[in-house]
Amino acid sequence: MALAGLYRRILPSPPAIEFASSEGKQLFFEALQNGTMEGFFKLISYFQTQSEPAYCGLASLSMVLNALAIDPGRKWKGPWRWFDESMLDCCEPLEKVKSEGITIGKVACLAKCAGAKVETFRTNQSTIDDFRKHIVACSSSEDCHLITSYHRAPFKQTGSGHFSPIGGYHARRDMVLILDVARFKYPPHWVPLTLLWEAMDTIDESTGHHRGFMLISRLQKPPSLLYTLSCKQESWVATAEYLVEDVPNLLKSEDIDDVQKVLSVVFTSLPTSAEDFIKWVAEVRRQEEGARSLSKEEKIRLDVKGEILQLVHETQLFKCVTEWLSSGSFCCKNASSSCKEDNIRDIAANVCCQGAEMFACGVGASGKYCCKETCVQWLKLNGDPPKTLISGKVVTGASEQGFDMLVPASQVKPECCNGLVGMHPASNDVLTVLLLALPPSTWSGISNKKLLEEIQTLLSIEKLPMMLQDEVLHVRRQLYCLKRCQDNEVDHELDASFVS
Question: Which of 12, 157, 170, 465 could bridge 152 with an S-S bond, Cβ 3.0-4.6 Å?
Answer without folding.
Answer: 157
